[in-house]
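Researcher: We're teaching a course module on how sequence relates to structure. For the next exercise, students receive a sequence and then see the predicted structure as tokens, so they can try to spot secondary structure elements on their own. Here is the exercise chain.
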Amino acid sequence: MLKIAIVLSVFACALAAPKPAGLQPLLDGRIVGGAATTISSFPWQISLQRSGSHSCGGSVYSENIIVTAAHCLSDNPSLTTLRVRAGSSYWNSGGKLSEIAAFKVHELYGSNGMAHDIALIRLASPLTFSSTIKPIALAETAPADDVVAVVSGWGTKLSGSQTLPTQLQYVNLEVVSLEKCASSIYGYGSQNVLETMICAYTVGKDACQGDSGGPMVAGGVLVGVVSWGYGCAYPNYPGVYSDVASLRVWIENTAVTI
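Model: And here is the predicted structure for the students to work with:
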């Protein structure tokens, strides 16, 4: 994915940062400003892989259902190219590597920007829960402004790098409500930040390309799914996540029919 270099002064960043070039799905993942961790701290985390390479993140919902982002699967990839690795701190080894039986992208994804960026995966065989593989409950309500949430995933740690860290990374971020994120406080505007979205913003820290589909967790529940943003950790541009609370009914209903 093309990355545009942007030079910002401290003064410009504090007041009104220039707008980076384009709304971009966060496809090939990085945690910016985070630290390495182990899967036992994030046992719901999975790596969604295409042809043996890490592609997106996701979360364990049940023994055979994974929650991820719609844009990770919206090109309708062949099931034979897809795998899910669960239960490992490393995307490329350990844990359990599972084949995928089916996936379902939200029916409304693509009809209105990045709204409804949610999908479910059904594994070909059920996971066995352990200290390194556990499901995470879905949020019933969106977290309040300034609540600290944690985002985890694999991917490059510097914008523009092509090297994936093999070990799981995490970062703590502050939640920004839909209304606040869409306001003039930040740079997106109400035409881009829509229903089914929630944001998170901490200066110098972010989820980014390839962390897509991965979990944002607060209060022990899944509150967001990494979705999109302008660049990575750009001043005045929060990371944008699918709001799990607003999509909860779709997840619950689809999980039993997929």
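Model: If you want an answer key for the exercise: Confidence is low (pLDDT under 50) at residues 1-23, 26-30. The helical segments are 10-15, 178-181, 244-255.
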